[in-house]
Design a protein that fits this description.
about 375 residues; P-loop_NTPase; six-stranded antiparallel sheet; globular; binds adenosine-5'-triphosphate
């Protein structure tokens, strides 16, 4: 995917700003607080329905304004050009995709695939399991799309609804036919969700091995494993839910199932996730993100847009070089930010479109 235009209004410090990126590398420089990350956040927001720094209501709307706007034009492979706009107040939103009103933000997410790597991305390795489930489900959401005959989103929504209903009944201490019915629904949707996640993890494996070899060769071989959220080798989800019922009634929520799933990444020559340095955790997280992007590229015939915020932070030069070489080899459109142009980018002499953010506006710099 190639983003051809990004326009933001009332977004963090920007009253209005516009960027016309190029295919390949786009470098965005500027002082601390100038708004570099905000530009990446804007694209991420349109593609994920939230920023990697939080939701719209967490301060994305420019102080004193009612709502932010993001407008993007892009091309997916050799297909037609697309355009999408989102106006969001933190509560209400209104969006259009190719001129038609959008009923669910998932429609924008489905149309525009963006993978972002930012200073907090190490949490994909050493943070809570929620981030890893979101990572996995984002990949499935794109691969198992309804327009390709997939039903991941359908199962995901079914599961979320059944889980909410079961939790509500647990809190009311209601052990009746309704609880049986929602548990049955939860078990069916949960088994389907888990089977899709498991297959996806297996398909990611070779891409992950290649990315770890490219970015973190000292790690040795890599293995990704799904922890399903219940003792799936021994029990069906229906049985696990039934067995957990008494405890769940006391706690008032469901303690087993795919909403508790996790991913385990094993790197043969490095310690477990708690023993990794911050830089190693970042590289392992980037390998996970790029493995998923590479898998998607294989399915779609074109790469998602890749965004790397503050690449130089915490990565030494040899590793920055490895990252940039891998990204260049992919042919993807890449956004990189930094207070300075990363020295490695100059050393590698890669073609780069350069932009500078200052005083609330973005200027294209000549190479
Ligand atoms: N809701 C808001 N309204 C107005 N200004 C905001 C709002 N939220 C954030 N800002 C300002 O917008 C800027 C956001 O900067 P951003 O994080 O995008 O900068 P950056 O160039 O990536 O910085 P750094 O190099 O320090 O990471 C900061 O100056 C911040 O004070």
């Amino acid at each position: 995917m190639i983003v051809q235009r990004l326009r933001v209004q009332s977004f963090r410090r920007f009253a209005e700003a516009e960027l016309e990126p190029r295919p390949g590398f786009n470098l965005v420089t500027g002082d601390n607080g100038s708004g570099k990350t905000s530009l990446l956040e804007a694209l991420h927001l349109l593609a994920h329905g939230r920023s990697f720094r939080g939701r719209v209501r967490d301060g994305l709307v420019r102080q004193g304004e009612q709502a932010l706007s993001v407008y993007v034009e892009w091309q997916a492979g050799s297909g037609p050009a697309h355009r999408a706009g989102l106006r969001h107040s933190g509560g209400d939103w209104d969006a259009r995709l190719d001129g038609a009103a959008v009923g669910h933000l998932g429609e924008l997410c489905e149309a525009l695939a963006v993978v972002s790597f930012e200073p907090g991305s190490h949490a994909l390795i050493d943070g809570s399991s929620e981030g890893r489930r979101r990572y996995l489900d984002w990949g499935l959401f794109h691969v198992e799309r309804a327009d390709r005959g997939g039903d991941f989103l359908l199962q995901w929504r079914r599961h979320a609804r059944a889980l909410k209903q079961r939790n509500a009944l647990l809190r009311q201490r209601r052990v009746d036919a309704q609880l049986d019915a929602w548990e049955h629904e939860l078990a069916q949707a949960g088994e389907a969700l888990c089977a899709q996640r498991e297959a996806h993890v297996a398909r990611l494996q070779p891409h992950l091995e290649a990315m770890i070899a490219a970015l973190l060769p000292g790690a040795g071989s890599a293995r990704l494993e799904l922890l399903p959220g219940w003792r799936r080798q021994e029990l069906s989800l229906a049985d696990a839910l039934l067995l957990a019922r008494d405890r769940d009634l006391v706690q008032g929520h469901t303690s087993v199932g795919p909403h508790r799933a996790d991913l385990r990444l094993e790197l043969r020559d490095l310690p477990g996730r708690d023993g990794l340095s911050r830089g190693q955790a970042k590289l392992a997280a980037l390998a996970l993100l790029l493995a998923q992007a590479a898998y998607l590229a294989g399915q779609d015939g074109h790469w998602p847009v890749l965004q790397l915020d503050d690449l130089a932070s915490e990565l030494d030069r040899p590793h920055q070089r490895r990252v940039l070489q891998a990204l260049h080899a992919s042919g993807a459109q890449v956004f990189v930010t930094g207070t300075e142009p990363p020295a490695v980018l100059r050393e590698l002499d890669l073609p780069v479109a350069m932009f500078h953010v200052e005083h609330g506006s973005v200027a294209r710099l000549c190479a």
